[in-house]
Amino acid sequence: MPKISIIIPIYNVEKYLRRCLDSVSNQTFSDWEAICVDDGSKDSCGKIIDEYAARDSRFVALHKENGGLSDARNEGIKLAKGEFIVYLDSDDFIHPQTFEIALSIQERSGAEMVSWYKDKAYRNKLILRMLFNSENVNFKPSSFYRSYDASTVEFDYTDDIISKATEYSHPKDIENPIKHCYVWRHLIRREMLDGISFEKGLSFEDFPWWSAVLLKNPKTAYTMLPLYYYYCNMSSIDRSSSRGKKISSWVRGLGLVLDLYAKEATPHQMECWTANFKWPVIQGQIARHLDVVKKSDKHYDYISESLRAMVERGVFSDASSPADLKAVARINKFLGIA
Fold first, then answer.
1. Angle CA 325–296–333, to nearest 5
2. The pLDDT of residue 209 is above 80
3. pLDDT one-digit tens code per residue, 167-205
4. According to the model, what pLDDT value does residue 338 have?
5. Which residues are within 8 A (CB) of 169 and not within 5 positions of it... i.e. 6 or more apart?
6. What pTM does this model have?
7. Phi then psi for 170, rounded to 5 degrees?
8. What is the CB-side half-sphere exposure of residue 242 using CA atoms within 13 A?
9. For residue 239, is pLDDT > 60?
10. Among 67, 181, 199, 331, which is least packed, fewest CB within 10 Å?
């Protein structure tokens, strides 16, 4: 049984895939399996993962019909044998010591989940290189080459993760927060994911997934080290989706989590999630962009009907801050509510 199972969903990323897989094969910690899920790619991705699997038995190649990102992740974890799970997107890559550092932190803390951060400077450097038409795929920032003593890497620890987690980029009331719903920045004990899956067909599926993980309240250790390199892929789901589709996905995800928390959350969990996830999603991902969604948009009816149902359900009745109230005003305007 490998210590770590890495789930890598893959779809039409031949330009970046070797970079991703090489960042796994070059890890300083070697007891892992990488489950590479080819989600019906139309390019050479299938051949590439077959090549890696033939060369290194730790790579497992799974080929399936296209079902979307969530479906690929769900199929991948079914094959996982590792004690811990890591998700990695196929157009991104990780620091060579990611697994070594995460496991060192886990062993020192006894945590059920270890989290880290992405390199923010990498994105800025990529943008500059794009402006100057410089080659980007093989570029790696200086932090990628930095060497760490894993046994001395500092970390924070919490046994009340929902009080530390937030969707706000700059929370004022949380010291050393774990920010945003990123799927790909955790080492998670496999048992903590029992009963949790990604919603098939949903964009921004990390929001309901992460909200479900928070309900499990895993003992969590986290470091601020930038061990993940998020690539600005212009063909990604986020960048290639229309505004109507994006809002529709966020509305659907919000509805799923509202139902889940109504059934399973403790009062403390509900309070923290409402303040640090429900309202920032409503403000920043839904209400802020409603004015660009016209009646001709194919997602308009779903958005309108879902938001109206939430109004009737009282979802927005606890608005308190100026930002909350502004978001509610925008929703009411969109719905034609005086």
1. 20
2. yes
3. 999 998 999 999 999 999 999 999 999 999 999 999 999
4. 73
5. 179, 180
6. 0.95
7. -135, 70
8. 12
9. no
10. 67
